[in-house]
Amino acid sequence: MPHSNNTTEKDWQEVQDSPEFxxxxxxxxGFAFPVTIAFLTWYLLYVLLxxxxxxxxxxxxxxxxxxxxxxxxxxxxxxxxxxxxYSRYANRKVDDLAAEIRIELEAQADATxxxxxxxxxx
Length: 122
What we know:
By secondary structure, the chain is mainly α. 78% of the residues lie in helices and 4% in strands. It has four helices and two strands; from the N terminus they run αααββα. The chain has helices at 9-17, 19-52, 54-57, 67-114; strands spanning 60-62, 65-66. The chain has a two-stranded antiparallel sheet with strand order 1-2. Strand 1 (60-62) and strand 2 (65-66) form a beta hairpin. Helix 2 runs antiparallel to helix 4 (67-114). The chain is elongated.
C-alpha cells in the first residue's frame, strides 16, 4: 500500500523519543547484546584454541575429522542458529512493536498530507 513520505526530521525525533520506540530498542537490544557477546566469546575461544592448543585441536574424532574441523563447522551452525533464533524472537517481540510505530508515523504523515493548506488536519 503506497503512502506519502512526508515525515520530517521532527517526526523522526518524536518517534525516537517515544516510549514505544524505547520498548522497541529494549526488545532488540535484549536479544542482540547478549547473543553478540556470547557468539564473540565462542568465536574468540575457537581462534585461541586453533592458535595455542594445537594438540587439542588436532585430536582425531573419527577418520580424518579432528576437533578443529568440528569446532569450525559448529561456528557455521551457531551462525545459522542465531539467525533462526533472532527471526523467531523478532516475530514474537519486535515486529509488532515496529508495526505499531510505523502505523502511527504513517497516520501522522497522512494527516499532514490531508490537512488543508494553512490549517490543521480535521
